[in-house]
Amino acid sequence: MSLKGIVFDFNGTMYIDGDKQEAAWFEFFQRHADGKYTVRQLHKMIHGINGGEFLKMALNPDLTEQEIYDLTEEKEDIYREMCLNDPKGINFTEGLPEFLTKLKEHAVPFAIATASAIGNVRFYMKHMHLTHWIPAEHIVYDDGTFKGKPEPDIYLMAMERIGLCPGECVVFEDADAGIEAARRAGAGKIIAIGPKKDHERLLGLPGVTAVIEDFREVGLDLLETV
Q1: How far is CA 180 from CA 1, 77, 114, 142, 168, in A?
Q2: 11 and 114 in contact (C-beta within 8 Å)?
Q3: How far apart are CA 158 and CA 110, in angstroms?
């Protein structure tokens, strides 16, 4: 089956924000569970997992939907403030604007499948002008109606939004849970993104066909229809 379109994860893929995500979670847990987890444990837990599921796992499995919403927004307020205060600004991953421009010029369909909730999606739309690059209806986010990564639901929805079968899609992901979600969805190709020090480990994950550090390393030749 030929490769015709692309689905991007967002956090850690289109926007390298892992340092701020971790710092926000650490500050949040200092308020709500000081000393319960080590930095190493938190680092292992937080990447690529739906926020509500993470809070239930980390704090209380009986949290109500309203409690999950309130706690998640508290953490995201911390995170968004960190983004706004970053002296480097809020920028796409190196090489991504040029790559997105090529996709648009060649009418290659693409979507986003992000574990972020609507509050952060709106934040990215405002401060990164996200809808200049991609229609809002092609951004699939965590709205609480489906299982989060590593379940394949979010990727299957994103692929459907651009009218493609899973095997026709290339997925870009940075997190283990997201890579597994893409694999379970049946993605035609999975390209992991991460720092050089993580490349060997990422390449060893099931389903990963290549690893990049940023989007300066990719072109339209990864598709078989352009």
Answers
A1: 21, 29, 14, 17, 17
A2: yes
A3: 9
Amino acid at 14: M
Residue 202 CA to residue 199 CA, distance in Å, equals: 5
59 by Cβ neighbours in 10 Å (0-12 / 13-18 / 19+) ranks as: middle
* Cβ within 8 Å of residue 25, ≥6 positions away: 42, 46, 75
According to DSSP H, which parts of 85-193 are helical?
96-105, 118-128, 153-161, 176-185
Region 190-195 average pLDDT: 97
Q: Write out the DSSP string of 44-106.
A: HHHTT--HHHHHHHHT-TT--HHHHHHHHHHHHHHHHHHHHT-TT-S-PPTTHHHHHHHHHHT
176: Cα within 13 Å, side-chain hemisphere: 10
Q: What is the pLDDT of residues 101-146, one digit of tens each?
A: 999 999 999 999 999 989 999 999 999 999 999 999 999 998 888 8
Give the pLDDT of residue 50.
63
Model confidence pLDDT, tens digit, residues 156-187: 999 999 999 999 999 999 999 999 999 999 99
Which residues are registered as beta bridge partners of 110? 6
User: Which pair of tokens denotes residue 190?
Assistant: 């999975």
Distance of CA 10 to the CA centre of its chain: 4
Q: Which strands form 110-113's sheet, in the order they lie side by side?
A: 139-140, 110-113, 5-8, 169-173, 189-193, 208-212
Q: Whole-angstrom Cα distance, residue 108 to residue 221?
A: 12
User: For residue 52, what pLDDT band results from cuts at 50, 70 and 90?
Assistant: confident
